[in-house]
Amino acid sequence: LILPSDHSLTKDCNHKYGASYVYLSCLNKCIQSPCILMTKPLRHDSCKGQYKDRVFSLSNNSRLTFLIRDRRHGTYHHDNIFPCSNGNCVSYDKVCNLVDDCGDGSDEMDCTNHFQCRITKEFTPVTKVCDGQINCLDLSDECNDICGKKMIHDLWIEAFCWVLGILAVGFNIYTLPVTFKDILESKTSERFTSCTFLFLISLGDLLVGIYMSIISVFNAYYGRDYCQEQLEWLISSTCSAVGILNSFGISISVFSMTALSLIRASNISGGLQLPVPISRKKVLQNLSISATVIILSAFLSIIPWAGRFEDYFVNGLYHGSQVPLFIGTFSKSDHKKVLEAYYGRLGAVQLSWEMIRKLLSGMFSWDYEGLDHMKLQFYGNDDVCVFKYFVKAHDPQLIFVWLTHTMQIFAFLLISVAYISILRASSQNVVEVADKHTNKVLEKRSAAVQRKVTLIVSTDFASWIPFIFLCFLHTMGIFDATKYYQIFTLIINPMNSVINPLVLNSKITEIFVAPVQRKIRELKIQLLKMSPVVEPVSADIQMAENVG
Hints:
Elements: H1 19-26, E1 55-58, E2 64-70, E3 75-77, E4 81-83, E5 89-91, E6 114-116, E7 123-125, H2 155-185, H3 189-222, H4 226-234, H5 237-268, H6 280-302, H7 310-313, E8 316-318, E9 329-330, H8 332-343, H9 353-361, E10 374-376, H10 398-437, H11 440-475, H12 485-492, H13 496-504, H14 506-530, H15 539-547
Antiparallel strand pairs: 1-2, 2-3, 4-5, 6-7, 8-9, 8-10
Helix pairs in contact: 2-3, 2-12, 2-13, 3-5, 3-6, 3-13, 5-6, 5-10, 8-9, 10-11, 11-13, 13-14
């Protein structure tokens, strides 16, 4: 046996197997890996039926043992024999090698370099436990007390998801009928346009709130059992449906806000004007823009799910839990390795999912009812079934995802520029009118616009721009942002679905926020009343005390 050059140092031997593990552990060179030979001494009656040329001898502990002949060197030794509990023997290279060579598991029993699957009892390297990749058919290497997980990974994220989902649904359910009524009662083109797109923004935010609520319900339903059901959930049509719902809602909200911002900016660019009555042309124009927003949002949300584009959006195939060859989901590169082992080298052929399914069908007999081919869709990339924002340079979805990111950045820039121009135009008009008529109404209106601009622009940038920058760092391999994924997708980004109705609809603020503000003011007054009042000391009394 050739030991590593640094074998004199104590080290972690969990990545060593066979004879290397045996010798290093028995030389006390392994951290927390005891010598497996200490508990199973070689006796004279060990290895029955094996080693016919054995020579019996007394060992140094006065126990009768035997030696076997090394035919190559003509010497006798017993330092490469491991006695199994069932009486068989194996050589050291078959000890602690993740395979039950003894037949009773005793050659793997006391090893620290493996993990034994709970149901199937197979062995897998301990270094592969809780690494995010399934190695046990029963999933026990990933679903256990150490690394078992829920759909929503952290309790505080779960709490935020419930709160934001309920608030987004409640606020926007209230806003939608009110805004629809305002559309019907609109007398001017400006109000009709504003109410139309405010309705679409609320609709998008409502869909995001429904998504958050659905995810919270499924997270509570699966609980700690989610790890066992993870693959079934990720490949399910329900996961894809809620992912499409969330993406559709976000797109509607963003594109509607962009359209509304541009229309408002174009209307005010020429200065404050008298209200214009609603015209048929204006109605058709708004309806066409609204239809474009809905169609574009639906297209961007549904296209990753369309079967025709599966080679660009399907992340892998799941073949069920009954085939040991395919554990978990397999990507195209994983499938290619298996197919080349069976069919021979496939060269530089770019395999489509259809070709992979046909080649796999040729590997398995129909006597075993063939092989399942369940798709891991675009929205099944994460436990909460969201748009695949985080992509790597080799992912086939790279172009589509970054095209979407670019559209979002462009939309937010347009929103910002539009509202800045609105703010500047409003301020100029207020100054001009104030100089002539000192119109306090316009001053108040400008201040209100300014507050809305600040809130809308700051919340949009605070949520999406840092997130897209994080996506860029992840794609370039500069920073692994995986652990922040659910924080952004379940808390920071959906927060706009709660903030938007508060900013855009003053009635919600009056109903839900004003009572809270009133309670806070009342609490402050009560605290002031409860605080002790210090009476001032008169100069005469103070002087008398000093004299005394």
